[in-house]
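The instructor's notes for this session suggest beginning with a concrete chain rather than abstract definitions. Hand out the sequence below and ask the class to guess, before any prediction is shown, which regions might be ordered.
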Amino acid sequence: MVEKIMDYMVETLQIERDRITPDANLFDDLQLTSLDLVDIAMYIEEEFGIVLEEEDLTDVTTVQSFLSKLE
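After discussion, reveal the predicted structure:
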């Protein structure tokens, strides 16, 4: 699942794969916006059936913190 999400980020958001590390800050390091996070959450819901509510994303800052919401 993580690989597919990373593929999505590379292909859709045009982020270099080697920049997507567990400690990478989504906003400062990867230059994502809150709309990008919603887009990724929608992809996860469509692809894996996991629903992430907006309030689930409010405290997300790193790749790892985002992925921990999927557990």
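Then share the key points. The CA atoms of residues 24 and 44 lie 19 Å apart. The chain has one domain: 2-68.
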